[in-house]
Design goal:
Order of helices and strands: HHHEEHHHEHHHHHHHHHHEEEEHHHEE
Number of helices: 19
Strand order of the largest sheet: 1-2-7-4
Distance between the termini: 87 Å
Helix content: 40-55%
Strand content: 5-15%
Low-confidence stretches: none
Structural class: alpha+beta
């Protein structure tokens, strides 16, 4: 009687052992450079994964190799350093690498139905529907709402300067500004977190980033059908209930009272109610909830971090700051003092400041694509990538490659003149990704960030103080975005 259970247990153990050995030895059958990830991770320092990938990248460059294989948990991953091969992955062979590899559970977790996580044909249909909502014409319609919150931002900054004797923690203030902007244009809400820092909307926004367990999600993405049957959710019931309730209530109110605000939610409602052509995808309420949600979490954190990093760099580089301020004054003089969508877009040096900030501190410091069909790289090694392999893109490492950007630690907005940009490989700058899955809200993100910076620089001067860190340190547990671990303190004076 005891023999049969023992035999079954032994058989299961052998099967698991063989399965694990196959997984762990995945790259041994390929004649390519492989890297033991654990040897590059500084566990004691708990560093951000971007710096681990940077050492991968430097090893590849030193050995003149285009890519290296490694394991992420048990998932075979390939870090690609060659920019021509990255162009294939992102653009010309996009159909072989169309997905980001995130886990979704549309039935139990409507927030996971957002466009960042969507894959396959559903992603393509939703992307096609939403692309027109981020045109320059739509940005003009949203501009007044954003600018009004920007003026409120300036007022609150002025109050902080007086109350705190000119020393201000600017990271939290920037996050409150972008929370109010995105809450307004994505949900039609007056969040008022600039005046009330602990408003529920602000708290829920932080939870949306920090309640996702990256390792659990990685396992769930590898075995999605199993986890979907188990009802596993990316986001908590608290977040699902909160954001779903807001969207449903707001949509019902607007439709019942025929309210128009020219914001993102208005555009989603139009798409939901518009007549369909044959074969066209119909957005439903879950789509509206998911897209409004991802627009919020994707917009408030990334833009606020970029603004904070830009102010940090401008405080340490006063000559660059003065040049940016002069650019703002010259453009406003040209437009007779009118601050609008056109005058903002004419502030070319301010744009270069934002672009250089995103080079030095990319808020998405790495990218990922998942192979969906066998593909052979057309390089000298000719590696054939199998479906399921993750392609890792070391964005931070590329942005800090001295062969591409000489003296990469120096903050130099002149790197982004038209002439300089044209000299570089198109894959040498990837803060928003590239190809069909490039960030759909890039235009809005740039508008929001440039507006915040322009209004601040027009009204205030920023410099370092005794509490300003010499170097920024980054939260290693927030693997998706770069976010400083501590506050960013600067001396702020009215101009």
């Amino acid at each position: 009687m005891i023999f049969v259970p023992f035999l079954v247990f032994t058989l299961i153990a052998v099967i698991i052992f063989l399965w694990l050995r196959k997984k762990l030895n995945y790259w041994k059958k390929y004649d390519i450079l492989t890297v033991d990830a654990s040897s590059l991770i500084k566990i004691k320092e708990r560093e951000h994964v971007a710096f681990v990938y940077q050492r991968f990248y430097q090893k590849l460059k030193a050995e003149n190799k285009p890519y290296a294989g490694f394991l992420t948990l048990l998932t075979p991953s390939l870090l690609v350093a060659d920019l021509d091969l990255l162009k294939l992955v992102y653009i010309s062979e996009f159909d072989a690498f169309p997905d980001r590899g995130f886990y979704t559970n549309y039935d139990d977790d409507p927030l996971s139905k957002n466009m960042v996580r969507l894959h396959g044909d559903l992603w393509r249909k939703v992307r096609t529907k939403l692309t027109p909502t981020f045109s320059s014409g739509r940005m003009r319609q949203m501009f007044d709402n954003v600018e009004a919150i920007g003026q409120n931002f300036i007022q609150v900054m002025g109050e902080q300067v007086e109350q705190l004797n000119n020393e201000v923690e600017i990271r939290d203030l920037c996050a409150r500004f972008t929370t109010d902007v995105i809450g307004n244009v994505a949900f039609g809400l007056e969040c008022n977190s600039l005046h009330k820092p602990h408003t529920e909307f602000r708290i829920k926004g932080d939870k949306a980033f920090y309640t996702i367990h990256p390792f659990m999600e990685m396992i769930a993405a590898t075995y999605p059908k199993v986890f979907q049957k188990l009802g596993y959710k990316v986001f908590t019931n608290e977040l699902i209930s909160f954001y779903s309730g807001i969207v449903k209530e707001t949509v019902a109110y607007r439709e019942r009272n025929q309210v128009k605000r020219n914001d993102f939610l208005d555009l989603l409602i139009e798409l939901k109610n518009s007549p369909l052509e044959e074969g066209e995808y119909q957005l439903d309420m879950d789509d509206l909830i998911a897209q409004a949600f991802v627009f919020f979490i994707g917009g408030f954190e990334t833009s606020s971090s970029t603004m904070s990093f830009a102010l940090f760099e401008l405080a340490k580089n006063p000559q660059v700051q003065e040049k940016a301020r002069q650019n703002i004054e010259e453009v406003l003089e040209k437009y007779k003092g009118v601050f609008n969508y056109e005058s903002l877009n004419d502030m070319n040096y301010v744009r270069q400041v934002v672009q250089e900030t995103l080079r030095k501190h990319p808020v998405a410091p790495s990218g990922r694509r998942v192979c969906r069909r066998r593909f052979t790289f057309p390089d000298s090694q000719g590696l054939t990538v199998e479906p399921g392999v993750h392609i890792m893109i070391p964005v931070y490492a590329i942005h800090h490659d001295p062969e591409i950007y000489p003296q990469p630690e120096i903050f130099l907005p002149e790197r982004f003149t038209v002439e300089e940009r044209n000299r570089r490989h198109p894959m040498a700058y990837l803060p928003f990704g590239a190809g069909p899955r490039t960030c759909i809200a890039e235009r809005f993100g740039m508008m929001q960030t440039m507006m915040g910076l322009a209004l601040l620089l027009k009204n205030f001067k920023f410099s370092t103080c005794e509490h300003t860190s010499e170097h920024l340190s980054f939260d290693p547990f927030n693997v998706r975005v770069f976010n400083s671990k501590e506050g960013i303190y600067l001396k702020v004076e009215k101009v």
